[in-house]
Structures are given as structure tokens and as C-alpha cells.
UniProtKB/TrEMBL annotation:
Protein purpose: Increases the formation of ribosomal termination complexes and stimulates activities of RF-1 and RF-2. It binds guanine nucleotides and has strong preference for UGA stop codons. It may interact directly with the ribosome. The stimulation of RF-1 and RF-2 is significantly reduced by GTP and GDP, but not by GMP.
Single GO BP term: regulation of translational termination
UniProt keyword annotation of Nucleotide-binding present: yes
Single GO molecular function: translation release factor activity, codon specific
UniProt keyword list: Cytoplasm, GTP-binding, Nucleotide-binding, Protein biosynthesis
CDD domains, per the entry: RF3 (cd04169), RF3_III (cd16259)
Domain Tr-type G per the UniProt entry, residue ranges: 11-279
Name of the protein this chain belongs to: Peptide chain release factor 3
Coiled coil: none
Location in the cell: Cytoplasm
Binding site for GTP: 20-27, 88-92, 142-145
Domain of life: Bacteria
Amino acid sequence: MNQQKLQQEVANRRTFAIISHPDAGKTTITEQMLLFGGVIRSAGTVKGKKTGNYATSDWMEIEKKRGISVTSSVMEFDYQGKHVNILDTPGHEDFSEDTYRTLMAVDAAVMVIDSAKGIEAQTKKLFKVVKQRGIPIFTFMNKLDRDGREPLDLIGELEDLLNIEGCAMNWPMGSGKTLKGIYDIYHNRIEMYRQKGDEPQFVELDQEGHLPANHPLTQDSIYQQTLDEIGLIKGAGNQFDRDKIAQGKQTPVFFGSALTNFGVQTFLDEFLQLAPAPSAHEMTDGTTLSATDPQFSGFVFKIQANMNPKHRDRIAFVRIGSGEFEKGMDVTLQRTQKTLRLNNATEFMSSQREQVKTAVAGDIVGLYDTGNFQIGDTIYSGKPKREYQALPQFTPELFMEVTAKNVMKQKSFHKGMQQLVQEGAVQLYRNYQTGDYILGAVGQLQFEVFKFRMQNEYNTEVIMKPIGSRIARWIDPEQLDTTMSSSRNLLVKDLDDQPLFLFENRFAENWFKDKYPDVKLTAKL
Ligand code: GDP
């Protein structure tokens, strides 16, 4: 591909993740987008979990049970001249460090909020990670077909709970049974509410932002109320600010209903215009690598194991940071400086796995891996050495004590443990005094996957004893006195032998702080 073509292709990429609390409507809105993209023909096909019809491939049992599949990890489609990549961030029990790391591989995030519930716990957690990256965040207030909270309240909550300005791009005219339409401030038009399946209907507004005088809605009190509210937000609300949006300091807010496919297209159209194309990355040596650099490079942000038990393969998910990926190309693995030939790559679709055609900066490729890759690895082609910045470590919240069931299996237990920890599947700690193994994770699923893989790949049955949810805080070794620990603040050390306490709860942490006011405790994230 020549340079001009590469620039064009990269400029068309839109790579994002949807963050939300379970049940806010992420799956539903994703499906609507895939429908627009022509990837699926009917709703209800994205996750086996929801419909019971699993995809044909035979992936890891645990994944099948939970309905997580690699095909829904990355979904891509072409829409209005853009090549869209949606990276899934699983919620529910599926929540894991992968969920967080996936947010390191996107250029923007869409936050879906249930307009009856407002901002919920999981959204807050994920938001925090996205916010740290400083990438643009777009908000979709969903379920407008039901009675929800006041739109002004919902926007206010963004500022109060998430500390981000909300800028209304459109405004609901009524809600639930009284829903009339969406007042699209950005396009100066109204999208009329209609039955699901009917064609979208838009009415253009005049320069004042008013309906034509003869339009029946002008007589409706809801329209009048909308005009009042629009007046209010235009006067006193946050003004649309491209720079703030680009830095993640302001979030454009859209209203709609994913289920009735109302406002989703308006959202998608505007989102794809406003969301950024892949941009340059800061490298560890202080240089900036342009996305349109002709040399291919990328980093591994996720490794998914044993999707096909017959082959015991793993897939390393690589976010392309620059250049073009070509099947069979030789790359250097930065960590080892070894050359690898990338023969086997997979393209992600919602219904099948296919061999990759073209993939450029912004796209995700899945590489079949026989154990070469670790999370965070850089691969690159060409002479100049490249190294992407390390992915952040996420402080685990759930902990388990783990031992091998059969003492004769100690060797494979240690090997499995070492490899899985290296791969980033779980985090490992040891009891400061006894040296017992303690695993840390951000979601329960990580433990289940760990247990499953120890059994399947290392033939070792493990016994796991839950310690439960804890708050991890590091302590300066100079200040440490082992008598400070108790069952309510378990003392452990991390892989670098750094000591930390696992506090039972906030109360235990505060109690400790009161007792030892001079001791400095730090959270990693
Ligand atoms: P997820 O857990 O965030 O992926 O949520 P889903 O997309 O699975 O949606 C959760 C539930 O909310 C499902 O029963 C959906 O049918 C429903 N739902 C999603 N969007 C809407 C909406 O716009 N209006 C209404 N009334 N229900 C919705």
C-alpha cells in the first residue's frame, strides 16, 4: 500500500469501546450498530448468552458456558466510508483485567447510561480508566422509550459523579409514553419518534431552531417545554468545545433508545464525525510514532487462551499502532529481539473468523500464538527499534489463596503459575510471613479461567480459598513493621517483593491510618 493510501485508510479508522453497567443496553446498541454496518441481519445475534445460539467454533468450555467468544471481542464493519472497530469490554462476572486493558487499545469510548438509573458502579470504574487515558468519551443516555430521569439531572450527574462536563448534542422531547422525538441541536432538526422498523423521519428547523409554523407539534406542550429547555442549555449549559472533547474533559451527550433503534443512527453518524482517527503514540524512548509511519508496529493488549482445545492455541490481540499489517510478514518482538513470521492472523467479525485482508493502524489483529507473546509486548517491522509504553497494572480487588491439590504436582503447579502470571491472566502475591500463594484479580472470571487452565494446560488441580474483596495498599518497606498486620489487613508481597496490605474494607483502612498516621499507603491506580 502506498503512503497516500495508507494515510487515507488510517484516517477512516474509528476504534472504540463501549463502557456501561450491566443491563444499560450495551449489547442492544452494539447490535444496532452492526445492523447499520450490515454485519448482522437481525438483532439478538451478537452474544450466544442472550439467545442460546452459540457460534460454531469450539472454544474453551468456560467461554462457551458464559457465552464469551472471540468474535464478539472485536467487531468491525464499514459504515459511511469509515472502518469501525468496536472492542468489547465484558461486564458482569466476565469483568477482568482484560476489560481494563482493552481500554488501552481504543481511541475513544462510548458510555451507555440507563436514563432511569443514571451512572452506576461499573460505569464509574471503567470511566476512571478511560479518563486517565485522556481520550474522547461520548455519552448515550439510553432507554428513552421508558420514563427516565430529567435530562438536566442526568447531565448534572456527569459533572457531580464523574467530574466531566456534559454537552447536550440533542435533547429528548418527552420520555416514555410522551416521547415525541429528539431535538437535534447539532443538526438543527428533529428526529420524530416512530415505531420500531419504520424509516427515520427528520424535520428541519428554521434559523431560530423552531419547527415550521404549520407543523402539528408546535401546538404540543412538550415541544414548548423542549424549546424552553433548549434555551436554557444554550444559555447556561456547557458549550460544545472540540478541544475539551478531544482531551476527555467534556463529553457530548446524546439521548435515544437502543431497543427501538431511535436516535442510534443520529448518534452513530455524529459520533463517527467527531471521534478521532488513530493518532501518534508516545514511545518509551521519548519519540512519537505517527500512525501513518510506513513501518508496521503494534502492541499486545490481550491474550486469550485455548480457544480451540484441539490445538491448544492462544490468540494474542494486537492493536496496530502504525503502518500496515501483512500476512506472513516478519516482525521483531521487542522484548526478546527475536524475529517472528506472522503467518496466522485472524480477522474479527461478528459471525465468523476469517483470514485478515488489510489491516492498518487502528485495527486489531489476532495472532495465533504458541507462547511467544506477553501482555504489553511490542512487535515491529523495519530497522528502527520500537517500544510502546508499558500497559498500566490494575490494582486487583478480589483475592484467593491457592495451593496445588496434589503435592506431587508441585513442579507443574509452579510452572503453570509462573506462566499464567507472566501472561497477565492473574496477579500473584505471597503471604509475607508464610510465603503462601495469593492470587489477585479485578473480576471473578479471572480465577475461574486460571483454575481451568491450570487443570487443562498444566494438568494440576488447584484448591482456591477465597479471601474475598480487599483494598490493596502498598507501604514503604522502610516504614514496615510486621506487627502492623492482622487478619483485617493481611500483609503480602508482590512479584517485586514490595510489601502491601490487603485491607478488609474501607473501615479497616481508616482504622489503620488513624493508628499509624505517619505511614504512607499508596494504591497503584
Ligand atoms: P447490556 O448488559 O448492557 O449489554 O444490556 P442489554 O443490551 O443486554 O440490555 C439489557 C436489557 O435492557 C435488555 O432486556 C434490553 O432489551 C433492554 N434494553 C436495551 N435498550 C433498551 C431501550 O432503549 N429501551 C428499553 N425499554 N429497554 C432496553
